Amino acid sequence: MKKITFVGGGSMAEALISGILENEFVSRKNVWVTNHSNQERLESLKDRYSINGSYNLNELFEGTDIVILAMKPKDASAAIDKIRAYLTEEMLVVSVLAGVSINTIEMLSGKQLAIARAMPNTSAAVGKSATAIAVNDRVTENQLEMVRKLFETVGLATFVEEGQLDAVTGLSGSGPAYIYYLIEAMENSAVEIGLEKQIAQELIVQTLIGAAEMVKNSSKPPEQLRREVTSPGGTTEAGMRILEESGVKQAFISCIKTASAQSKKMGDALCSQLKVH
After folding, report:
1. Which residue ranges make up each domain of the chain?
2. Which of 70, 88, 169, 171 can bridge 263 by disulfide, Cβ–Cβ 3.0-4.6 Å?
């Protein structure tokens, strides 16, 4: 039976704990969590999920198979320094620290560890994350399967090269915010054309769910699906013309490119700072 120890007990850790337990990835008695000093938060997680919480490092790491680094990225150096002596080559170290490279984790630990770096998004809280995972060459086939199944408890999980994680951050990591922005715009337009906000939101959400399911389940590319909805001279064509004239597609492309570039910039700066300290 696998034992999982979370170092950090924030919202992403909680989403993973919830998914792990709901999907019976491991039993509650084999989930452990600690944080820097927020005992109230630690007790809250213990009570809500009936898991184990402790500040006793011997107790936390004894028999642990998977260590999940889920503290704030800026606290990675201090946290890894504190637990370094308890990390072993047999463990799989899983990082959900945005911007912290595998190389930086290796340097901070000073050990030859099996490390998986994951980029989930906030939809993990409802079991619908799109998570990309990169690993180093010390991760075994068995550990690869473990980390895939772990992140499948909160949604879709796929493996990429570490160099692609900045692109993933700009696309799916920040992606929920782009969709919320679109929903805001659709809600505002609904009010202006005379729909009640609650009714509009229900229609918008179902429309987005339906369109996503069509893309997921159809063999047709999105462009073809769009054209099939767009009758010549019809309402959709009239609306699409405004989007094209306003450069909305290019704006989304620029948005994702800029977010990806910012991810790389911030990651490089953070890794340099951590290595200095």
Report:
1. 4-164, 173-258
2. 169
Architecture label for domain 173-258: Orthogonal Bundle (1.10)
Sign of CA dihedral 145, 151, 156, 159: negative
Provide CB contacts within 8 A for 153, sequence distance 6+.
16, 19, 20, 22, 23, 25, 127
Work out the widest C-alpha separation in the chain, in whole angstroms: 71
pLDDT in tens, 215-238: 999 999 999 999 999 999 999 999
Which of the residues in the chain have pLDDT under 50? none
Helix 248-276, helix 175-192: angle, nearest 10:
140
Report the b/e string of 161-174 with b at 16+ CB within 10 A.
ebeebbbbbbbbbb
CB neighbours of 113 closer than 8 A, spacing ≥ 6? 87, 89, 91, 93, 105, 106, 136, 138
Distances (CA, A) of 134 to 39, 101, 116, 160, 222: 32, 10, 6, 5, 28
pLDDT of residue 271: 87
Q: Do 113 and 89 form a contact (C-beta atoms < 8 A)?
A: yes
Q: Note the pLDDT of residue 23.
A: 95
**Spatial distance between the Cα atoms of 204 and 216, rounded to a whole number of angstroms:** 18
Say what angle helices 102-109 and 76-83 make with each other, to 10 degrees: 40
DSSP at 137 = T
Burial class (CB in 10 A: 0-12, 13-18, 19+), 23: middle
pLDDT at 276: 60
User: Which fold, 4-164?
Assistant: Rossmann fold (3.40.50)
